[in-house]
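[audit] Reproducing an earlier prediction to check determinism. Same input, same settings, fresh worker. If the tokens differ from the archived copy the diff job will pick it up downstream; this log only records the rerun itself.
[audit] input (389 residues):
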Amino acid sequence: MIGKAAPPLPKPVGAYPPLEEIADIRDDLIAFVRSRFAEGLSESFIRSCLRIGYFEKLGGGLKSSLVGRMTVHVAAVVKRGDAEIPLHEKLMGAGNARSASLFSEVLGTMRLSDSDYLMLMEDLRKHESLMDRVFSGKRSEDVLSRVIDKTLAGLYIIHGLDPAAVSDTKPPRDNQIIFTSRLRDKLKDIITVDPVLKPLMSSKGHVMQGKCRPLKSLLDSTEDWEKENSRVVVRSVVHGDPHLLNVMFRRYGKGYRVRFIDPNPMLGLVDPAYDVGKLLHFAEAVGWAKREPSVCRASFSAHGRAGSWHLNGWLNGVAPRIEANRAWFENRLREKIAKTDLASQAEWSRRLALARASAHIGLAAIIYPNNKTVGRFVLSHALNALSEW
């Protein structure tokens, strides 16, 4: 690939970073690529030398005459952040040391300033996300079933990592209440944006046709339960964000290879149900809020002196074939989770209900400022999961 004329640059997929951010890191990134050449041409780096689409708006991608007149295009993904970036690299490296290609390969990390880091990762352009396949409507039950197996096996490897291999991993706290804390914080944010929802906290009501206790009372109960149950939960290293957009797969020989991207090592050691809740997150109907928000509908009403309320969310305008594919995938994923070792652990169903509610309400809080209807749709599913606790 090196030394030959580069092919025309394709249109990059996804949103561009802000232009000022691109301009800010362009020179640093070119210097970084130069330094990699100084270290020698490893096989993995040579494989990466195609192009990097993020910089196309600045004139043809990241390209620089690094050795003589040779021009190199680097196929990679750029992730910029603070001190979490080195933790990303450690977690991904530890995972790949246990199982090659479990995570996308980190080509290198550089420090731009005291608090600013840049990580260059291989571009998985030949892969597709699990969400793209699930919401495509393709009849691919056998493919998806095998990919689910690979995905769960990958999470099992991550959960079994030695915390010492991921330095700075936070130890579990006594009486850890990670799910309830997140639910309280996000509900507070949502009600600030949508104050008519205040009756949810102090009055009983109905969500998705089922009964729901006042949320203040319910969350007091889940917090007490989490404190008590934390003594028997075996906490582990987790991916932290393995939703369907962060699970990539492609055909590999006679089977399929699954690779994870974008972990969240800042969580430290937590209940592995966190990862399973995230995996189910977009597999449930909530996924439509990310895939096609226009099909999401919601209603809320509160009435009477006691403030009884009713929150509902439903879909309108979804292609039946695609929704059937999504529903099949969700059911198949649940069946396979039920056969894992995790499902035999103490209070598993209740832990998973809280994990799902936590994942859903996090998305609802993000969506709310821009789209109250879709936010209420996701919130209805979050409270429905919480009511299963």
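[audit] rerun output stored. Observation attached for the diff report: The longest strand covers residues 296-303.
[audit] end
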